[in-house]
What we know:
The protein contains eleven helices and 19 strands. It is an alpha/beta fold. It has two domains: 136 residues, Porin; 303 residues, Alpha/Beta hydrolase fold, catalytic domain (Rossmann fold, 3-Layer(aba) Sandwich). The strands form two sheets. Strands 1, 2, 3, 4, 5, 6, 7, 8, 9 and 10 form a ten-stranded antiparallel β-sheet that branches. It has a nine-stranded mixed β-sheet with strand order 11-19-18-17-16-14-15-13-12, sandwiched between helices.
Amino acid sequence: MFRKTIFAFVAMFAIALSSIAQQPDPELEYVLELKVKLGGAFGVGKTAHGNRFVIPITGGTFEGPNIKGEVLNGGADYQMQSVETGRTDLEAIYCIRTDDGVSIHVRNRGIIADGYFYCSPTFEAPLDSKYAWLNNAIYVCRPSGFMDGGIALKVWKVRDAFNFESTIQDIKPIPDAIRQPAAKQGKIEEFKYTAHRNGKTLQKHARVYLPYGYKAKDKKTKYNVLYLMHGGGDNTTSFLTPPKDWLPLRNVLDHLIADGKMDPIIVVAPTFYDDDENIGANKMDDAIALTRNFHTELQNDLIPSVENAYNTYLVGKDSLAVTASRDHRAFGGFSMGALTTWFQLAHGVNAVKHYLPLSGDLWVYNDKGEKQEPAVAAKWINTQLAATPFANDFEVYGYTGTEDIAGNPQKNLVEALNANAPLFRYDATAASGRPRPDANLRFSMRKGGQHYYGDINQYLYFALPLIWKK
């Protein structure tokens, strides 16, 4: 029995080793920086192993893209210096506590020799906490600076080299039944509101989808709200009353709700154009300016008007009320509408938590009016978000197609966000086989998907239940 067990173990190890051997060399992922306060060191004296020193750990702070908090008083760094070689072996044992009250045990072993100063910390986090991901990895760290009465240490996780292409999820075809009208259909109506822009008062309208069973008098039942922005040259009817040869979004919504895949929601289709102007007269520069600034109209005019007229989670009309209900709100868009979505995230994350950029990337320009590389755009939006209270409280669900003219640009942007924008935590489930629990950036491409609403509405069939699953 023992020999069989050993043989099975060796066989499993060989299979794992064969798989691992095919992986590229590992790389490092930045995790956090510790700023540790130290007390006065004292020596134990010469022992059988060398000269023993103890340095008390009295406090400090730490922060990383996915975690921050304080270093607790009461730990120590136990150092042993070799008499023969001068090499110092250290072992620091202490605890940290996150800003939301989770205590984590840290044990950090390392060596100092001939100018080499590296350590390998291990973390013990509660299995039922959102920081359990710290438990199952190898980490390295080294000093990143010295301060009065302490030391700063940067920590990296050792991981497989990241292959972005292998992480992209493929979008499956929707069931054929979704293309047919549902037995229980919601209704679409026009909604008029007043907007204010650059000192002008505009009379505008949007299309509103109300789910089957919606009752205006039922004030106890509240609905989440999705805002969907059309593409360049399109209008408020593009999502909610498409031509017959497209997959109607109305069918998608009706079936998702009827099949129990999603809670009933309200969908609002506005326009970034002025209703009283000829859309064709708006050149590209005009359209970009309108998409870039639509967040102001959304937050100040459209959200208060729509969500006070229907049964939603908004209570009040001011900015504080809009912010208080942001968890119950999503914003998405196709093409130029996707550009609007990225700008909404950059400038209005206080009003909306969930984002659906559909076949469109982020355009950032320099002082000369030149469009910048995706890495520049990624760093820009990360800086914008870092200045808000919601830097770690947003969700992005990106979708496009392999044959879409915006497909590669959006893919390049998502890859740049993963590499250059630490506030965006990309879900690489396809490559790892394990969902990232703290992910807030997801991206999928449909093989053969093109730049039109028929494909976009298919993406929404899979995306919306991720946000408001019943």
